[in-house]
Amino acid sequence: MVEGALAGAVLGLGLFVLLRAIFPARPGLVARLLALDAVREDTGAPRIQLALPDEEVSAFRRGLGARMARLYGARGWEVRSIRSDLALLGRSFEAFLATKVLLGVSGLLAFPLLLGWLVLMEWGVSLAIPFWTALLVALVFFFLPDLQVKRDAAAMRRDFRHVVGAFLDLVSMNLAGGRGVPEALMMAVSVSGEQPNWAMGRIREALRGARIVGITPWQALGQLGEEINVDELRDLSAALGLVADDGAKVRASLTARAATLRRRELAEIEGRAGERSQSMLVAQLLLCAGFVIFLSYPAAMKMLGVS
To answer: How far apart are alpha carbons 258 and 179 in whole angstroms?
Structure first.
């Protein structure tokens, strides 16, 4: 059965590559509908480009990632959550896709390794266990980058929300000093000095990019919030866009938003502390149970008459 499955997989892969070479893939219906919706929803406002750090990616990985990105686009797979997480982490979507594919392929190397180990240990040549183990390892390796990106992005997004709360306080104080909304936003990000926090640096880059492309600072903040999936920046952009000419109401709104962010952050910290306390309690109970079993085992064996 395993030999037939391997032969069928190789034959199917060869036929797939041949058909893709003869009949190139065309954009699917979902991709066309998404492009049509994007044209309809386009407001005409230019968009800022997030400055991503240069990644050391080989030409092979870059080409593989570009082909995978085209495949995702043709199938209409937007994966907005992963894209926003990668934008927050400063990583390339093409490099991420190439990493997933290469890790999945490397997981298939478990097949010859397990097969050679079985032969070396003289346990018989069975292709079933190495075959299904290699498939399982390849599947796990393929989804490992997703789990890592989500974990890292969740931690960075919490830090970003904390910085947004401080940013709102700074903007509110600058507005109280008599500055306008654009000047208050730029002064707020300038307080951190020449080497700001990474989150404040992202906000500063967005505000500077707004001047270059010719949009308002709150539009730039809204675009940044959409790119990295931070609701607080989108809400701030909407609030500043509605009441940009009314400084008093803006100050009151920003102060209330900053207080809400601090309360929510405090609640999240208390919740994480409670979870860790419960996990420590469970660990202590397990340790006590193991110690009791260790002490009572000799007496129990003696009562049962087991020498």
So the answer is: 19
